[in-house]
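User: Working on a comparison across species. This one is RNA polymerase sigma-70 factor (ECF subfamily) from Leeuwenhoekiella aestuarii. Can you predict its structure so I can line it up against the others?
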Amino acid sequence: MELNQEIIDRKILEAKSGSQSAYNYLLNAHWNMVYRFQLERTKDDFKAEEITIQTFSKAFNQLHTYDNKYRFSTWLVTISKNLHIDFLRKENSQRQLLSKEDKLNKVVDENPTPEDALITEQNLSELLAHIKKLKPHYQEMINLRYFQEMSYKEMAQTLDEPMSNVKVKLLRARRLLSDLIEKDQ
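Assistant: Here's the predicted structure for RNA polymerase sigma-70 factor (ECF subfamily) from Leeuwenhoekiella aestuarii:
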C-alpha cells in the first residue's frame, strides 16, 4: 500500500510538536514494512520484532533529524538496517566472548585437590592389593605396561619373549585383574 507523502509529512510535523496520535499513525502506517524488512534479514520473528521496536524508538527519538527531502520509509529502513548491523556485531562479539570463556574454562587445573589426591591414593592402594593377588608373572606384566609404561616391544625385549606372547599374557593379566575387581565390588 502506497502511503500519501503529504499525510506522512503532516504527521511528522505533528509528531515533532508532540502529538501522540501522530506518532501512532506513523507507527501503524510503517510497522509492517519495517517488520517484513527485518524478518527477511533475520529469519526470526522475535529478532525482527525486537529490531523493529528499536527502529521506531530510535526514529521517534531522532525525529528532529529527519530530512523531508527523503521518504520517511527510506529513513526508517536505513535506521533499521543499521540497527540490524549493530545487532549482528553485538551477537558476534558475544559469541567470541563466550568462545574465549569456553577456552578459559577448558584450561585444566592439573593440581589435584586434597580430596582428589586422597581418592586417588585409596584407589591406587586398592588396585595394588588386587594386583598382588595375581600370579607373579601376571603382576610383572601389569607392572611393566602400566607402571613403567613400556611398549609391547620393550616388554618383549625385557622378558626375552616374542611380542605375541607378551600381548596374550598382558590380555590375560588384565582379564584376571578385572575379574578380581568385579568380585570385590
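For your comparison, note: The domain at 5-105 is CATH 1.10.1740.10 (Rna Polymerase Sigma Factor; Chain: A).

User: Helpful, thanks.
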